[in-house]
Amino acid sequence: MSVKPIRLFGDPVLRMKARPVTDFDKELRVLVKDLTDTMTAAPGAGLAAPQLGVSLRVFTYRVDGETGHLVNPDLSLSEEEQDGPEGCLSLPGLTYDCRRAHGVVARGFNMYGDPVVIEGTQLLARCIQHETDHLDGVLFVDRLDPEQRRAAMRAIREAEWAGQAPPQVKVSPHSTFGRAI
Question: Which UniProt keywords apply (predicted)?
Fold first, then answer.
């Protein structure tokens, strides 16, 4: 099991647009395993590469007993919307109602470069949208209405984890995945 530290709110990597994956190699498969192991241990419903300090467009998810991943996602969203509770492993302990599309069709690739299509509604749709937002440097608190956003920002400032420095990552100088961004 390879559980990695999760980057917390305030870490600049969480606000950067992640780069598309171009190499579907062993390093990508290791990253997907690290994401899956860390997400499972947390536990969480999803985890995006930037949350481990890796600025690449890949995320994992575990919803309704189904575990998977998606590389370089492209989303088509339903017009129907849903409101529901949402949290984030990078903002531990905080949950707020957030408006999302009710359904999603996500196209991308698996870790081997094979095309993948994931269709989902409700929680799976919410998770896929949340994790794709991470790849665009967007956090769920950015999608809250102004009153809830103020409450969330106050809770973040008061959280015991607020202001913690990002973890120091030791990596090989040849690695592109483990490099802290």
Answer: Hydrolase, Iron, Metal-binding, Protein biosynthesis
